[in-house]
Each structure stands twice: as structure tokens, then as C-alpha cells.
Design brief:
Keywords: Cell membrane, Membrane, Transmembrane, Transmembrane helix, Transport
Transmembrane segments: 36-56, 76-96, 127-145
Shape: elongated
Membrane topology: Multi-pass membrane protein
GO molecular function: heme binding; heme transmembrane transporter activity
Mean pLDDT: 76
Helix content: 55-70%
Order of helices and strands: HHHHHH
GO cellular component, one term: plasma membrane
Structural class: mainly alpha
Length: 146
Amino acid sequence: MGRAISIGSRLDVEDLQGDHVELVPKPETKLYHRRWVMLFLFSAVSASNAFMWLQYGIISNIFMRFYNIGSLPIDWLSMIYLLTYIPLILPVLWLLDNRGIRDVVIVGSAFNCIGAWIKIGSANPDLCVPLMIIFFFFFFTSYIYF
């Protein structure tokens, strides 16, 4: 038995091919080498962001001895990372709508780079707290972009 077509339908009976009706032609996807390069770059930046976030939690015992602090401040660095996502996602979504993904990724990469350099500067145990606060400001804002 066939398919029932309402009287107001614009489909012709000849156009029906079994149960498949093609109302909109399928768009053809072209493969460009540049897209693979962009995918690799985005993945690399996202991976570097994730590595910097998880670094303190993975080897917390080493950081506890090096900076002479307890485990709670190190655990809070990972928790704050996730909690900042909630208030900072709205400005990033606005920027994404108004400027596009290219600008959002560039800004996120810049914040990620600045945060990494500040993190390198915190290798001195005496500069730990001030530099870590500045680092995590840049780092948390870069996290939202990815």
C-alpha cells in the first residue's frame, strides 16, 4: 500500500520513490586540507588548556612540598576552574555571536599563552600566591573560549 498524501500537498505521486521523498537536495561536503590544519590547531590549544588545568591536581603532593601549602588550596584551584565557567560563559557566547569563532579562539589562545607565561613565573615558591592568582585569572578566562 502507498503513502497517504493530503490534498494540499505539493508532492507528485511520480516523485515518491518507496518511502523516501527528497524535498531538499543533500549538500555536498568538500574536504579541504586547511580544515584539517584548523582542526589540529584547535585541538592542540584545547589540549594545552586541559593540561595546565589538571597539572596541579595530578601531582599535588609535589606542589604541597614545593610551595609549603596544604592540599585544600591545590584542590580549590581545580574547583575554581570549573566554577568560573558559569559566570564567564555569557560574555563569551555574546562574543561568539557578534565576532565569530575565529576571534573567540584567537582571544582564548592569547589568554592561554599569557597564563602559561605567568605560570612559569610562579616557579619561585616565594611568588606562588600572587602569581598564581594572576595566572588563574587569565587561565580561567581562556578556558571559557574552548
